[in-house]
Amino acid sequence: MDPRPVGARQARELLRVAFGPSVVALGLIAAVVLVQLLIANSDMTGAPGAIASIWLGVHLVPVSIGGAELGVLPLLPMLVMVWGTARTTALATSPQASWFVTRWVVASALGGPLLFAAIALAVVHDAASVLTQLQTPDALGAFTRVLAVHAVGAVIGVGSRLGPRVLQASPLPDWLPEAVRAAAAGVLALLGLSGAVTAGSLVVHWATMNDLYGITDSVFGQLSLTVLSVLYAPNVIVGAAAVAVGSSAHVGLATFSAFTVFGGDVPALPVLAAAPTPPLGPFWVALLIGAAVSGVALGQQAARRPLPPAGAAAKLLVAAALATLTMVVLAAASSGRLGNFGDVGVDQATFGPAVFLWFAGIGGLTVAMAGGVVWPRRPRTESEAEPEPRTEPGAGEPEVEPEPGTDGAEDDPVAAPESEAATDAPEPSPRPRPVTRTPRAVAAPDPLELEDPEDHYVVDEPPDEPPEPPTGDGAPRADD
User: Fold this and answer.
1) What is the pLDDT of residues 171-184, one digit of tens each?
2) Of 44-58, 93-107, 197-211, 385-399, where does mean pLDDT reach its minimum?
């Protein structure tokens, strides 16, 4: 356990959240730039301006050199920056933290990068006075992009720790985390399958990729092309995802889709060898199967907990909307202007609706088939009710066992057991009623044999003791 006071520990965590990711990124960028300048035998005059420009480029801030704008920046460094911000904010946030501490964590995650952005803009502006080809980017756009990148990371990091508590205290539906999980599964499936198709296309177009590596003879140049290809690989995968859902991706005048390809000049980047070439074969049509599989992945996650039709439909639509929003943001981040080649990116007018239709349509079918909907039971009508089984009178009724010593006869306070007369059986009733076991009727005795004369004979038996003699006046006299 840390023996330092709580205030000191919290201050250290806030400093780590504010400056940790930016300092790490700045150190890596400085190392790469210095190595490049040393290998090129160049002086260090433009090193600060290059480091500051690349740091802004990590946050997707366009860089202008010699009048040519580099607006298409690699997605991989930006995604790493988002992950770093999310990790530091999650480590600094406790699930039981108060909202006061949470606000300070979010403010630190946003304030530190904004301070770095201001310093980087000042360094670039100062370097532009020496290097006339370097131009200072727009300040408002730079602050906005830096703020957006770190805000996404802060929301992910804080939400991962405080999400359950916020959901319990809010009127939001309890299936919202399941919708977020389903959206993440759909996005990861679509990007993963698109990446697999991109890797397969690179293998198919291996000769074209080898020709693109031939533009430089030095090992360092080929290493630089490899690093750039790795950094721009997420951009190419997003373009492949656009082709998979039926939209299109373009590099200047060159347009690529799953059905047609319009040729044009493309940059000499080895990873762009994965672009399809006419005539199209069935390999690129397989991308449509990948889009369907991603919809199935989203639907399976949404069907893990069955809900009534309204709840299941709402969860599916929310998941599809979140997945579509994520893909649209990634497509917008991977788009921009690439110098003389023109605009690079995907067709946003068709990309968003196409992604939503795939996720909502295929996902909805998957939810219905996977048992993710609990259909209400329709009450039975009188005509559909099952008829009651007919039973015979007395059938299924328990038999009444006679009590010991009564011989099956009921107690009658008037008639004696010996002189009980037989009773007639009751007339059958039109409605069945419970029947109990009745005692068997005893035959009526003959009137002449009701009494035996011998029963009236009395036999005088001698008493066991002689009677006592009477005393008093009633005593017999001697002369009697």
Assistant:
1) 888 889 899 999 99
2) 385-399
In the block, residue with structure tokens 């990790």: 87
Q: How far is CA 95 from CA 82, 89, 102, 150, 323, in A?
A: 21, 12, 10, 21, 26
- Look-up of token digits 């301006």: 49
Q: What is the pLDDT of residue 411?
A: 47
- 3-state SS class at 68: strand
Q: Is cis: bond before 279, omega within 30 of 0?
A: yes
Distance, CA of 333 to chain centre: 26
242 contacts 313 by C-beta, under 8 angstroms: no
**DSSP H/E element including 312:** helix 309-333
Tokens of 7: 């205030």
Residue environment code for 406-434, b if the CB has 16+ CB neighbours within 10 A, otherwise e: eeebeeeeeeeeeebeeeeeeeeeeeeee
The larger pLDDT score, comparing residue 378 to residue 64, is at 64
DSSP-assigned letters across all residues of 163-219: HHHHHHHSSS-TTHHHHHHHHHHHHHHHHHHHHHHHHHHHHHTHHHHHHHHTT--SH
Closest C-alpha among 266, 291, 293 to residue 277: 266
The 10 Å Cβ neighbour count of residue 363 is 29
Any idea which residue has 């992009």 for tokens?
A: 145
- List, edge to edge, every strand of the sheet that includes 248-251: 261-262, 254-257, 248-251, 343-346, 336-337
Residue 449 has pLDDT above 70, yes or no: no
DSSP codes, 141-157: HHHHHHHHHHHHHHHHH
Q: Could you give the 3-state DSSP secondary structure of residue 473?
A: helix
- Per-residue H/E/C for 400-461: CCCCCCCCCCCCCCCCCCCCCCCCCCCCCCCCCCCCCCCCCCCCCCCHHHCCCHHHHCCCCC
DSSP string, 261-296: EE-----S-GGGGGS--SSP-HHHHHHHHHHHHHHH
The pair of structure tokens assigned to 316 is 């599916």
User: DSSP 3-state assignment of 345?
Assistant: strand
Poorest-confidence range of 153-157, 218-222, 395-399? 395-399
Q: Which of 134-138, 229-233, 417-421 has the lowest mean pLDDT?
A: 417-421
Question: What is the C-alpha separation between 304 and 372, in angstroms, rounded?
Answer: 7
**Please, what is the Cα angle at 9 between 3 and 15, to 5 degrees?**
150
* 334 touches 239 (CB < 8 A): yes
